[in-house]
Amino acid sequence: MKNFIKNTLQSNKVFYRYYRKKGFKRFLKENILEIDVSNKTKALSIALGVFVGLTPFWGFQTVIVLFLATYFKLNKMLSYMSTHISFPPFIPFVIMISLYIGSFFVSENSNFENQKFNLELAKTHFLQYCIGSIILASSMSLILGLGSYFFLQKLSSRK
Asked: How far apart are CA 66 and CA 76, in angstroms?
């Protein structure tokens, strides 16, 4: 335990010296935002974040996206920010669209007319919701990933 505390204090000193040497702006650009990475990496980071953000793993999205971004050596900040495609005002629309898309792939009778749209509806049609959300996540991550890649290419060609 004593060595653990000693190593932790030593690593904090090293980090502090590294941070002081660079300054806040340079540290933010190089270490947090990773400005120097390629447009392909940035677009893949956005696509990963959108995919994880639209999957039904609510509550675990941050942990999942940070693990996957680290594993695939992508920009963690862009991936994390892209998971917020499903922030609270959009969640009912995400669930509704996922249920609608999933209805084409599940054989159960799913008539949504004259039903209250709430969490109980998603619970009763959980398989349909899961299938629809995976399809929605895949297609939106492909669309937004390609769109961000072409947008970043156009921006970099202007400079």
From this structure: 6
What is the pTM for the complete model shown? 0.76
pLDDT at residue 2, as a whole number = 55
Round to whole Å and give the CA distance between 34 and 159.
18
Mean pLDDT for the stretch of residues 33-46? 83
What is the reported pLDDT for 112?
64
**According to DSSP H, which parts of 23-38 are helical?**
24-27
Q: Which of 46, 70, 76 is nearest to 146 (CA)?
A: 46
> Which residue do the tokens 């202007």 mark?
158
By the 8 A CB rule, do 82 and 53 touch? yes
Distance, in Å, from the CA atom of 149 to the CA atom of 9, rounded to the nearest integer, reads: 41
The torsion of the CA quartet 84, 86, 90, 95, rounded to 10 degrees, works out to 180
* Segment 12-20 long-range contacts (CB within 8 Å, at least 24 positions apart): none
The C-alpha atoms of residue 121 and residue 135 are separated, in whole angstroms, by 19
Average pLDDT over residues 62-71: 92
Q: What is the DSSP letter of 92?
A: H
